[in-house]
């Protein structure tokens, strides 16, 4: 897989947009750039390589679609995510808002799993993903959904194989993963804070 990148290149070179490049003004997250970064993140599940990750990826893609449909329906009112939510809720609908809640949970799960794995350099990817699932998505999932995610956690590649798939130059892979994660974590925190407020509830 690493051979698909230019010499010395990494998975992060293939992303249309990184979360660290999503404009945030006065706490408001630009909608179009956020959706591009979220779509780029879903390709990471292809690198993880197992069919077990397909439900996770398709769930995220479905939620991105809900947000984008609202943005296309009311572009002026949806330039940033916070305004998109406020304006959608005024119409007594919450399809995109609910999509954003679930998408942010999945982003939080991914961020926590990869941060834990990057920090603990002897830990297998499956251990980090399982811990992150317990901290994030599992409390929102029914007993029917949990086994699907459990299967995905068990299907993660070995640590050395996963990082090799991200690029040949491991020092560069770890540096770029760290930068990308910091951008993702900041966006997730911003959204967690906003989605916990009364104005984001339906």
TrEMBL record:
Source organism of this protein record: Aureobasidium subglaciale (strain EXF-2481)
GO cellular component terms, semicolon-separated: cytosol; membrane
InterPro entries in the cross-refs: GLTP_sf, Glycolipid_transfer_prot_dom
Ranges of residues in domain Glycolipid transfer protein: 29-167
MF terms (GO), sorted A to Z: ceramide 1-phosphate binding; ceramide 1-phosphate transfer activity
Alphabetized SUPFAM superfamilies for the sequence: Glycolipid transfer protein, GLTP
Statement: the UniProt record of this protein carries the keyword Acetylation: no
UniProt cross-references to Gene3D superfamilies, sorted A to Z: Glycolipid transfer protein
Protein name, entry field: Glycolipid transfer protein domain-containing protein
Highest rank taxon of the organism: Eukaryota
Keyword annotations of the record: Transport
